[in-house]
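Student:
Attend to each token:
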Amino acid sequence: MELLNAIAIGAIAAACIYSLLRRSLLKFIVGIALLSQAVNLLVFTSAGLTPAAPPIIEPGMSAPPETIADPLPQALVLTAIVIGFGLLVFTLALSRRAIEAVGSDDLNNFKNTDT
């Protein structure tokens, strides 16, 4: 399963780099969104994919079960999703204003904004 996740992460990262190197501003934003998702999958995969119980101590027990899921990667990814969404919304708003000012989403046209 981890090999399949590694292949998926590699494919998403390749699509991300391809999108980031395009001349269109909107494709650049899609590349940023793909990068965020690839990093989230990488954190999940690096933490280990083990089917385990949640880290809850039942009444009457003195310790949790032997195999428990690690909540730290889940918390990190949840935080990264929120931050990634905020970044995506900010870049969409910024790109909308930039496209209105320049008149095109081609990144080469952004050099001529001083005139």
Summary: The chain has one domain: 2-52+70-110. The radius of gyration is 20 Å. The chain has a mean pLDDT of 88. Helices lie at 2-20, 25-46, 71-102.
